[in-house]
Amino acid sequence: MNFINKNIFELELEEGGYDIVYDSGCFHYIPPHRRMDYVSLIKKALKPNGSFALTSFVLGGELGGSDISDWDVYRLRSLKGGLGYTEEKLRAIFREFEVIEIRRMKELEPSDVIFGKSSLLTSLFRNN
């Protein structure tokens, strides 16, 4: 298993070389005009039927998730701490993928072995 920690737009990806791509903390900081580049990179990286898992801010969530329009990002020159998403918006952005599941994370206690915050959305997609 290989893990890469680098700016996604600077990656030299092996086309169709990955079974899974996991994003926890990148997508909600990508400005609207780069979203389609991001989707294209994910599509390019994944093998056929590969999986894409995403953790993103809930719209108006306590950890982030600004409730501003795409236009406001440019008008205000700010993502206001990271953009928030709804299930519907994620389905629209990632329409090139099969949606397996999009839901709020299950809230877990800090003492639990695994992480979970209900102010985050967790999504799983399959590359068609």
Report on this structure.
The protein is α+β, with helices and mostly antiparallel strands. It has a single domain, classed as Vaccinia Virus protein VP39 (Rossmann fold), CATH 3.40.50. It has 3 helices and 4 strands; from the N terminus they run E-H-E-H-H-E-E. The chain has a 4-stranded mixed beta sheet. Strand 1, helix 1 and strand 2 form a beta-alpha-beta unit. It is globular, with a radius of gyration of 15 Å. The mean pLDDT is 93.
Strand order of the largest sheet: 1-2-4-3
CATH topology: Rossmann fold
CATH level 1 class label: Alpha Beta
Sheet of most strands: 4 strands, mixed
Structural class: alpha+beta
* Integer average pLDDT: 93
Percentage of β-strand residues: 25-35%
Domain unit count: 1
Topology record:
Layout lengths: L17 E7 L10 H11 E12 L12 H7 L10 H7 L3 E8 L15 E8 L1
Parallel strand pairs: 1-2
Antiparallel strand pairs: 2-4, 3-4
